[in-house]
Amino acid sequence: MTSNFLKASVGLAAVFCLAACSDGGSASSGSGGTDTADDGEVVRINLDPYPSTYQPMSSGTTLIQNATIFDGLGGQVDDGDVLIEDGLIAAVGQDLDVPDGATVIDAAGRYVTPGVIDIHSHLGVYPSPGVGAHSDGNEATQPVTAEVWAEHSVWPQDPGFEAALAGGVTTLHVLPGSANLFGGRGVTLRNVSGRTVQEMKFPDAPYTLKMACGENPSRVYGNRGSSPATDMGNMAGYRAAWQRASDYRDDWQEYWDAAEAGEDASPPRRDLELDTMMGVLEGEVLVQMHCYRADQMAQIMDLAREFDYQVTTFHHAVEAYKIPDLLAENGACVAVWADWGGFKMEAYDSIRENLALSHANGACAMIHSDSSGGIQRLNQEIAKALADGRRAGIEISEAEAWTWVANNPATALGIADQTGSLQPGLRGDVVLWSGNPFSVYTRADQVWIDGAMAYNRSEENTQPVRDFMLGQPGEGDQ
User: Fold this and answer.
1) If you average pLDDT over every residue of the chain, what do you get?
2) How far apart are CA 291 and CA 300, in angstroms?
3) What is the CATH number that goes with domain 113-253+264-462?
4) What are the tens digits of pLDDT across the range 176-187?
5) Cα–Cα distance, 111 to 179 (Å, whole number)
6) How many beta carbons lie within 10 A of that of residue 295, not counting itself?
7) 163, 109 in Cβ contact below 8 A?
8) Euclidean distance between CA atoms 382 and 70, whole angstroms
């Protein structure tokens, strides 16, 4: 499903690469002004002006033996071993040889999984403590704010990152809120301590665009006496914005064609909002869309066909169980809660079997938190969704259910070639659980990120504490 989309995006990116592949002579405007080039070179758009500076922690060789292994792809290995070398998964199997100098861990009676991936988090942009000064997740000033980036609001000292790490979370996707039709770019982070957000930023992860349908944008702006105030106003707002983005892309393409042909051509005026939307149209930026109802998701998929872009994932999607066939046909994933619903009208028709039914009927489905509390126990959220499905007669194995926090969100974020499963060559993002991860009594014993020990429940010196939690002189112990 999504793999076909990602393959297609390679072809789509060919045109947009003209804007990304700088030869050192490019110039760009940081505030929407017209780009200029003094020496006649073609003006390019820098697609990654704030690149990741993430550096993995130093790691050795670790062999985990005798565990029950969920590989993140739906497979299970009993009495199995996982070998991590040079920060990568080196091998998964039984009775693996012990390399020289390896740290060997006997995990008999315990479980090993890929690190948990939360595709919908607001850590850092709505950090703890939850005070007004920290409410940086919604640029609710106009319906279209595709120019804002969540990473520019992320506070790296949010103690929620450490709490999530203790729950096995190694990668998380931080999104703007859902007040706007186009809320801005999301960012995928490694769950490591960093002084800057760039030090946490997942290398080479695609950018995303948060969009929202339904009650939120129409309530926020309708209450101000402006558009959108209805679902039809929402739809009109999307269409107008996508038309501007399509025209913008055509203008840049016309310029690039002329400039590459050696003609005297002037570049269009830069527009940071439309840069992001053009990235979606060219397959470079992945749409992550807040949407609850089945009929609204269907309309958004119609909209995507009209303007020839892809919705990667519908978030919340409490009525996904009604349209799994449409989701599969359109290559759209859904990220859902286990049992949240009924808290507003568009969430009224939620059912606890939503995730299991969507998965069993062919949709790419996964769990998400949307909560600084829920992100700490996503393993238990899967357990609830799995149990509700089984009570409805839907047989899904525990190993298959683990894809809901592993390969499926990795695929929806465009990083499945780097993480999300225990395949040789992928990043060594691994969790050793004290028991079956679907038990409420189970805890993450040890968490590795890129093969380095990031968290050890039994050793305090491997449990990172961000500066904010150290307090101020005179306040006493943490």
Assistant:
1) 91
2) 9
3) 3.20.20.140
4) 999 999 999 999
5) 40
6) 11
7) no
8) 14
Quote the distance between the C-alpha of residue 418 and its chain's center: 13
Question: C-alpha angle with apex 72: 74 to 109, nearest 5 degrees?
Answer: 90
How many Å from the N-terminal Cα to the C-terminal Cα in the chain?
A: 48
Domain ranges within the chain, ordered by starting residue? 113-253+264-462
pLDDT of residue 464: 84
**Residue 290 φ/ψ, nearest 5 degrees:** -70, 120
3-state secondary structure 426-456: CECCEEEECCCCCCCCCCEEEEEECCEEEEE
Q: What's residue 470's pLDDT?
A: 79
> Nearest CA to 120 among 473, 405, 446?
405
Reduced to 3 states, what is the DSSP secondary structure of residue 124? coil
Closest Cα to residue 419, out of 205, 254, 276? 205
Q: Which residue has the tokens 């020839």?
A: 308
Answer with the residue of higher pLDDT: 476 or 156: 156
Strand order from edge to edge, sheet including 208-212:
116-121, 169-174, 182-190, 208-212, 286-291, 311-316, 333-336, 365-367
> Alpha-carbon distance 363 to 303, whole Å?
20
Long-range contacts of residues 457-464, Cβ cutoff 8 Å, at least 24 apart = 457/166, 463/162, 463/166, 464/162, 464/165, 464/193
The one-letter amino acid code at 262 reads: G
Kindly report the length of the chain.
478
List Cα–Cα distances, 451 to 74, 112, 179, 430, 447, in angstroms.
22, 14, 38, 8, 9
Task: Give, to the nearest 10 degrees, the angle between helix 272-281 and helix 231-260.
Answer: 90
Task: Look at the alpha carbons of 30, 281, 174, 74 in this order and tell me if their dihedral is positive or negative.
Answer: negative
Token couple for 352: 């606890």
Question: What confidence tens digit (pLDDT) does each residue in 409-467 have?
Answer: 999 999 999 999 999 999 999 999 999 999 999 999 999 999 999 999 999 888 888 77
Query: What CA–CA distance (Å, rounded) separates 231 from 300?
Result: 11
pLDDT digits (tens, 9 = 90+) for 51-74: 999 999 999 999 999 999 999 999
Place of tokens 């409420």: 440
Residues 221-257: tens digit of each pLDDT: 999 999 999 999 999 999 999 999 999 999 999 999 9
Q: How many CB atoms lie within 10 A of CB 347?
A: 18
Q: At what angle do helices 215-222 and 231-260 cross, to 10 degrees?
A: 100
